[in-house]
Amino acid sequence: MTDIFRPLSPRDLAARMTLVNQSVSQNLLHQFNRFMIDAEQAKAEGIPQACRHATAQADARWLDMETMLINAAPIDRTSGEIEASLFAQRRKAGKVRS
Q: From what superkingdom does this record's organism come (predicted)?
């Protein structure tokens, strides 16, 4: 495995984005927070359908924001399944319960 895992601070990761994408991701974060507040209120009022709808909307906003941040990250996307290779290494070392 040739990937080097270096943690990036959120500020460094956001700095790699264009100004437009930074604004869009901030907007998505605000929308996510708003939908989560709506979901909590609907849950407190006992309206499960409204809670599910708000949660689904919040999840969609979070996924969009996450995708934008991941696309800005300096990672090699051609190396294949990183998690699978890490799992195989851990399993070989006996660190995975079967």
A: Bacteria
Structure tokens at 75: 């990672």
Q: How far is CA 90 from CA 86, 93, 94, in A?
A: 6, 5, 6
Token pair of 40, please? 């909590």
State pTM to two decimals: 0.65
Any residues with CB less than 8 A from the CB of 31 and at least 6 apart, and which? 57, 58, 61
DSSP, res 94: T
Which residue ranges make up each domain of the chain? 12-92
